[in-house]
Design brief:
5-stranded parallel β-sheet; 6 helices; 5 strands; alpha/beta; about 40% helix
């Protein structure tokens, strides 16, 4: 899979480790930054990543910040993005099954790193259910 990854300074260490984790599993990954743990403004990284999802350059995106909220709110400003803030595997699975989410948002300050890997694996391995959910997803963009 082609996966875009980014976040902010609070998510930097998770981003670095998750990027390497994804590459080790054979995925093609583009890192949109930040490139250090110095204070950074997440929209500077989220908007380019989200634009790449809209342009179908990447199948999925992963965004990590302290709470996951800022990156999720910003990513969802893009019409072609369905970003889901997930803090457990049930939410990751449902966001894919029912909402066809294409960007996973993680809260580095609230979940352990190993569990972040598990959430990511669940998100990437779950397929959109379609059916009645497709009709609803098609009504999201205005």
């Amino acid at each position: 899979m082609k996966i875009a990854i980014g976040g902010d300074h609070a998510g930097y260490y998770y981003k670095e480790k998750l990027r390497d984790y994804l590459i080790s599993k054979g995925h093609e990954v583009k890192d949109f930054g930040p490139y250090s743990a110095e204070s950074a403004d997440y929209p500077d990284f989220v908007h380019p990543l989200s634009s790449s999802i809209e342009a179908s350059e990447f199948e999925f995106g992963v965004l990590i910040c302290g709470s996951g909220q800022g990156v999720s709110i910003t990513a969802n400003k893009h019409q072609g993005v369905r970003a889901a803030l997930c803090w457990n595997t049930d939410l990751a699975a449902l966001s894919r099954l029912h909402n066809n989410a294409n960007v996973l948002c993680l809260a580095a300050r609230f979940i352990g790193y190993e569990y972040a890997e598990t959430i990511l694996d669940t998100f990437l391995s779950t397929t959109f259910e379609g059916g009645r959910h497709e009709r609803r997803v098609n009504k999201i963009s205005c």
